[in-house]
Amino acid sequence: MLFNIEADSGSEIAGYLVPDSFSDTPRLCLHAGGALLWHGEASEPRAALVAAGRHATGRCGFRIGPAEVPGLAALADLELREPASGLCLYRRAGGRRLVGQRIFRLETRLLADSGFDRAMEPHFQAWHSRIEHFGAETINQLFLLHGIASSYASGRVQVPAHPALTDGSVTVMLQLRDPFEELAERIAVLAGARGPLARHLTVRERLALHGAAAALDGLDPGSARAVRRLFRRLEPGVAAALSNPLARQLTTASPGDLCAPAAVAAGLRALAGFEIVSTGELPGYFEAAAAALLELPPPAPMRDPHAAETAEIADALAGISAVQAMLECDLEIYASVSGVFDGLASGTSQG
After folding, report:
1. What is the secondary structure of 298-347 as a DSSP string?
2. Residue 294 burial by CB count (10 A; 0-12/13-18/19+): exposed, middle or buried?
3. In angstroms, rounded to a whole number, what is the distance separating the alpha carbons of residues 333 and 271?
4. Torsion over CA: 197, 251, 327, 111 (sign)
5. At what angle do helices 263-272 and 328-350 cross, to 10 degrees?
6. To the nearest whole number, what is the mean pLDDT of the chain?
7. For 6-56, how does the pLDDT look when each residue is reduced to its tens digit (9 = 90+)?
8. What is the pTM of this model?
């Protein structure tokens, strides 16, 4: 999906929306005050889209004015959405004091904590969470919204697949997690203990982790004994699919790609380009650093409702040599970043 808001004069909004389907006519809906005020088609012809091979007819443009929405100019909280996906294409600033930055919070967890993201929503004109569930073209579009200087997005995306994450177009924040805890949570998700996989995984992730999900089906993810027994006889293909999720996210373009030999160095280079990187070893550090960067009050710390169970399984996994080998790259990256925070913690205690 490709889209752009070309102008909002107050009395008229103009732009285009290219659907994922080559021949479909795109549809839009406009909301304000929590109510649906208009829905219709984007049917204005755009010859350039046909010439570029992006759409069969080029009928993807739209103009919304008082004829479609009486009183359009006065709608400060207007939102324009694509109804099938729910994607917010545009919303007005509405006179709010906004953060004038383009921010992206890189998510690594399958069970993301949306509390931090929700706390950010009122402070940005454009706001999108869990963007991994959109296509690559749409994700790239969200990073570079035309005419929007205040934007926030979060999601579990592959860093090399999106140049804006490494070329300075957006400011990236990340809170890392202990690799054994990350794997423990993934086991619970893939075993079906946290609800349907489609709720947590993208289509590409489900394909990449299909074999792992089958191997974990029926496992009690809260039983350390059962987890130890399974991972001591894990098939090589399943072990590969579960290996080094952090390093792969930082250094590969697809969830199914495996790490290259220099993945640790490449992963650390990627992290060096991020504005905020935290391991959670200093409680509240990530939230405080984000608040200082954005000049906002610190939001509540991100929480894991299954923390106790996750920690118990993580301890069991940490004692299995095969699991240590599976997570070798992630453990090196995490240890390198943790070393920085060990120094901070030491300096704080001495001060």
Report:
1. PPPPP--TTHHHHHHHHHHHHT-HHHHHHTHHHHHHHHHHHHHHHHHHHH
2. buried
3. 9
4. negative
5. 40
6. 92
7. 999 999 999 999 998 999 999 999 999 989 999 999 989 999 999 999 999
8. 0.92
Q: How far apart are CA 94 and CA 8, in angstroms?
A: 13
> According to the model, what pLDDT value does residue 128 have?
97
Strand, helix or coil for residue 255: coil
CA angle 300–303–307, rounded 5-degree value: 155
Phi, psi of 114 (to 5 degrees): -85, -5
For 329, list phi and psi in degrees, rounded to 5. -65, -45
Token code pair at residue 25: 């006519």
183 near 241, Cβ under 8 Å?
Answer: no
Look-up: residue for tokens 């350390």?
Answer: 224
Under the banding of pLDDT at 50, 70 and 90, the label for residue 323 is very high
- Cβ within 8 Å of residue 351, ≥6 positions away: none
> Buried (b) or exposed (e) across 116-155, using 16+ Cβ within 10 A?
bbebbeebbbbbbbbbbbbeeebbbbbbebeebebbbbbb
Instruction: Give me the amino acid identity at 294.
Output: L
DSSP per position, 143-172: HT-TT---EEEEE---GGG-GGGTSSSSEE
Model confidence at 272, pLDDT cuts 50, 70, 90, reads very high
User: What span, in angstroms and rounded, lies between the C-alpha atoms of 45 and 196?
Assistant: 41
Domains, the chain, ordered by start: 1-95 (2.60.40), 99-351 (3.40.50)
